[in-house]
Amino acid sequence: MLQTNNYQELIQQIGVLLSQGRQKAVQSVNTILVKTYWEIGRYIVEFEQNGSERAEYGSKLFERISKDLSHLYGKGFSRSNILYMRKLYLSFQKSETLSHILTWSHYFEILKADSDLEIGFYTKQCELERWSVRELKRQMKSLLFQRIALSKDKEGILELSKKGHQIGKPEDLIKDPFVLEFLNIPEHFQWHEDDLEEEIISKLQNFIMEMGKGFAFIGRQYRMSIGGKHFRLDLLFYHRILKCFVLIDLKKGEITHEDIGQINLYLNYFKKEEATEGDNEPVGIILGNHKNEILVEYATDSITNKILLSKYQLYLPKKEDFQNFLEDKLLK
């Protein structure tokens, strides 16, 4: 029974019920629509498999289906929609594997991927991170699958496709490169590290989405007093899955050994001065335009703190830059 102390509370409770009911109704409609389109795809594939009937309609089959269904049932049956209904069935041949969270608009974008591995990854990642269609488009354009897969072996890439990107250890936080095209900084513009930080803060939600699930922002230019001297960290986050502070240092140019030594100092400070019971050891991430792999190897050797280094770029990557490398990994 509803417990109401006054009229306004009654209205609020009714409002909550209506909001929940409408949300469930929309989700139910989306689930039914996706399943219906999957069934349409199945009918088309089964029709195609009947060779003699398929030959009668020739290469204009999809145009004819689109025209006839649009005439009978209205909008929603363009040729591209028909093709993606067919691809939906071919990509998810067991209807039980369809998501009850994703809409047809999500699937329409996911099915644009070139491979079954990418389709599996983006489907799972959409479920894990509750991406909007707009965010899904952005992640696909930024080649998220390829950027994460670069650090994986063949088994890791296959696992990525089945389960999405799971955060279990600090190394899982890294993409190489991070793509910051949403900052809208021209590639050859004369800017400074402070400008980069300012733009990130102004578009913090986009930055957190690019960093990935679990990041909670604490502050910028975080002040530390060590041995009578004052230091400031560019960006400080807490990662709720890894249960640790994440310190981020931004560099305009190449990551140097001095940068590595500096963030190692900050990590030691956080372990002793900031971490509380239940916190795991902090993680340091240095983002730079580029890094010298040999220098990084020597600079980080024997350091016990977890320091991760990655590049960032201010423009969307090109698929061909990743494709051959990934194909080689999968063939091994």
Structure characterization notes:
With 332 residues, the chain is α/β, with parallel strands linked by helices. It contains 14 helices and eight strands. The chain has helices at 7-48, 51-57, 61-73, 79-91, 104-110, 116-129, 133-141, 144-149, 154-163, 193-202, 204-211, 257-274, 293-300, 320-331; strands spanning 178-179, 215-226, 229-239, 244-250, 254-255, 283-288, 290-291, 306-313. The strands form two sheets. It has a six-stranded mixed beta sheet with strand order 1-8-6-4-3-2, with helices on both faces. It has a two-stranded parallel sheet with strand order 5-7. β3 and β4 (244-250) form a beta hairpin. α6 (116-129) crosses α9. It starts with 6 loop residues before the first helix and ends with a helix.
**Shape summary:** globular
Which CATH architecture of the largest domain?
3-Layer(aba) Sandwich
Mean pLDDT: 88
Helix-strand category: alpha/beta
Give the number of domains.
Answer: 3
Task: Point out poorly predicted stretches.
Answer: none
Content of β-strand: 15-25%
- Report the radius of gyration as a whole number of Å: 25 Å
Largest sheet: 6 strands, mixed
Say how many strands there are: 8
**Helical region count?**
14
Q: How are the strands of the largest sheet arranged?
A: 1-8-6-4-3-2
**What is CATH's topology name of the largest domain?**
Trna Endonuclease, Chain: A, domain 1
- Helicity, in percent? 40-55%
N-to-C SSE string, H for helix and E for strand: HHHHHHHHHEHHEEEEHEEHEH
Distance between the termini: 64 Å
What's the level 1 CATH class of the largest domain? Alpha Beta
Domain YhcG N-terminal: 15-147
GO molecular function: nucleic acid binding
InterPro entries: PD-DEXK-like_domain, tRNA_endonuc-like_dom_sf, YhcG_C, YhcG_N
Pfam families: DUF1016_N (PF17761), YhcG_C (PF06250)
